[in-house]
Amino acid sequence: MVSIAAFAVSCGGDTVPKPEAYLRLDYTEANYMLYNKDCAFDFAVNDRVVVEDKGNCNLTLRYPNMKASVYLTYKPVNGNIEKLLRDAQKLTYEHVIKADGIQEQPFTIPEKKLYGMFYQVGGDAATNAQFYVTDSTNHFVTGSLYFYVKPNYDSLMPAASYVKNDMRTLMESIRWK
């Protein structure tokens, strides 16, 4: 009789929904290979990436398991380096409306003629990272990371960190032809 009374009293509380949870995402260590096609530059790319050539050395690096892509755009420098730099910076700062902040990290390897900027975009912006790399006289490459899901910085952070490391490796490994 006591057990029935205890059972009846214990079941009378309000139902509380479980809090929303996110998956823990761990990614294996990246293995890089040289991407060397008929472009004005080569670079190291993660072997898990699907590279799509869109023509004129404009490439899409797809991460199918992450629903993400890095879009690479190549432009020759023909006395227009200032315009190319302005356009690259403008593209990044268009995301300032949704971004919590944009961190700029200058990038230079003079012995390889690599100069550029890496941008980390915080918050729920459409892109988490962008960059440009140039030799300042002949070549200019931009890259932008996009995910094909609603931007949620906290849930995308593990995947974004993984791809940002690949983007930095790409920047460091570019060789101009």
Based on CA atoms alone, the radius of gyration comes out at 23 Å
In order across it, which strands form the biggest sheet?
3-4-5-9-8-7-6
Global shape: globular
Helix content: 10-25%
> What is the element string, with H for helices and E for strands?
HEEEEEHEEEEHE
Strand content: 35-45%
Describe this structure as you would to a colleague.
- The chain is an alpha+beta fold.
- The chain has helices at residues 2-10, 81-93, 153-173, and strands at 32-35, 41-46, 50-53, 59-63, 68-76, 99-109, 114-123, 127-134, 139-147, 175-176.
- The strands form 2 sheets. It has a 7-stranded antiparallel beta sheet, with helices on both faces. A 3-stranded antiparallel beta sheet has the order 1-2-10.
- The radius of gyration is 23 Å and the shape is globular.
Short synopsis of the structure:
This protein has 177 residues and is of the alpha+beta class. The protein is built from three helices and ten strands, in the order H-E-E-E-E-E-H-E-E-E-E-H-E.
